[in-house]
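Hi R.,

Here's the chain you asked about this morning:
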Amino acid sequence: MHSYLLNLISSFEKNANPTQAAPMKKYMRDQFDYLGIKSPQVKLLLREHVTRHGLPMLEEIDEIALDLWSLPQREFQYVAMSLMERLEKKLPKPSIKTLEFMITHNSWWDTVDNISHIVGVHFRRFPDVKGKYLKKWRSSKNIWLRRTAILFQLDYKKETDFDLLCKIIRENLGSDEFFINKAIGWALRQYAYTDAKAVKKFVKATDLHPLSRREAMKHL
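And here is the predicted structure, written out as tokens:
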């Protein structure tokens, strides 16, 4: 375990709350263990740690994130995402491998959706990385990589490549996977704030899953 994490882990373990841990685990369908530390306190403990020890060095962030990802309690994975997000505009190009690992291990919406945002920033900074990894993720059998391919442009607004988004959506038509169909609707709904006319036209012309259609048109 990286030395940067020793005090942080100790602090979190001291603030564990087994009474809260049980319902938190149940909410996530018993897939992950929890210390029982709710989100506001996670943020507070991390902020205190960063105040004392600073942010990780860029050359160490991948190792630190992976060390956190290896711990069984879900709160540590939230910390890994938060540290990566704080450094998202400076992450080294090879950090895409770490982000991919985080997407495909201990996977669920609560981590993947946050990582998608970090990926979106990374793809903006490194178009060659985007070209290589997006091609691979779009055709992956892993639903979380495909969900990330759908969602990474959520914050792009006018910079969204809508043609690309439409192509990726069409590649996923016919899926019965809830998290894919939900992501399609979410991505379209988000872009509708920028160009409602384009979204309406695409929805009308495309045989979307009812869930995707409903989500896309929610605010239109």
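One quick note: The two ends are 49 Å apart (CA to CA).

Cheers,
M.
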